[in-house]
Amino acid sequence: MENLNSLSPIQNKRMTCYGGVAAAAALPSPPPTTLTTLPSSPCNTFVREVGSGGAEDPNTVVKQSVDGFKWRLLVSYDGTRYKGWQFQQTPPTIQCILEKALTQATKLERKDLHLVGASRTDGGVHAWGQVAHFITPFNYDSLDSIHAALNGLLPPDIRVREISAAVPEFHARFSAKGKIYHYKIYNDAIMDPFQRLYAYHVTHKLNAAVMREAANHFIGTHDFSAFVNSSRNDGMPNPVKTIFRFDIVNMGALLQLEVEGSGFMYRQVRNMAALLLQIGKEAIPPDIVPKILATRDRKELAKYTSAAAPPHGLCLVAVKYNAEHLQLPLGCPTTSLGRHHIVSKCKVPFY
Fold first, then answer.
1. What is the DSSP letter of 336?
2. What are the start-end ranges of the E strands in 272-325?
3. Residue 89: band (very low, low, confident or very high) from pLDDT cuts 50, 70, 90
4. Span 183-210, pLDDT tens digits
5. How far apart are the first and last CA of the chain?
6. Where would I find the beta strands (DSSP E) of 156-208?
7. Distance (Å, whole) CA 202 – CA 52
8. SS3 54
9. 161: left (phi over 0), alpha (psi -120 to 50) or beta
10. d(CA 72, CA 131)
11. Contact, 249 vs 266, CB < 8 A?
12. Which Pfam families does its entry note (predicted)?
């Protein structure tokens, strides 16, 4: 093992950040990112999704050894004018815009950032609590400057709310233990123009009580095959998910569906919302939910609702992780929550 006294200041800083001699010794020499099949320290190994054509394909998983530092982002966005989170060759997507800002702020290439999001939201879906991570081959003394730079480069409908150092074991997607989604319905004869981009307008008077009764049937561990669209393989073939809570909240004309679960498959939340809307209109009874679940057949759901609820009513509110994945590594900068500008006192007297 390399003598600690011979380590450069940069290597010493990396060793401190990742918490040990083994971490410092395991860091490879430049170039900063190298593909490897050799065993490596947990401090610099992570699982990355790799696909064809530059787009991420979750069906292909490789391990990469990365000489660098991992950073966690908390991101909010208005998804109205974007084609979802996932990178694709034809922009605009949230990941494309965020990667462009990161390449400008860090001076790194896209392939070296390894940006991964916790949830690959659909086009038109919003997020208040999207989580992502990226890699740099260098450390930061402070995160306030890059935080300000990113938000200065991003369009006003995308904002990085928080940047923090992440432990090597953290992965924005694979470390997630739960997610919270809200679906908003504006239930009135006339749509509030200020809600039109964030709530689905339903003029038929909905029965919130029967919707709550139906939502309770979703709670627990079930096979949700009947509520997933098969047009996209999201890399999570196990259809068994656990719903921890499913609340229907009245807020005047707004009816908010709040669902928290261990994970969700492609369009699962919007399909559940679509069925609850039909139940709220009293077109079908609440006990239809367990019957559809039992079939594990998407065609059975199609008998009662022809399409998923529109995307603009859906918002990713939060992604949950175990506490150990949210700990800050030793020697790394403190979390940046944004820089407040302070106006200094004027020294010229007023008359």
1. B
2. 314-321
3. confident
4. 999 999 999 999 999 999 999 999 999 9
5. 71
6. 158-165, 176-187, 200-202
7. 41
8. helix
9. alpha
10. 7
11. no
12. PseudoU_synth_1 (PF01416)
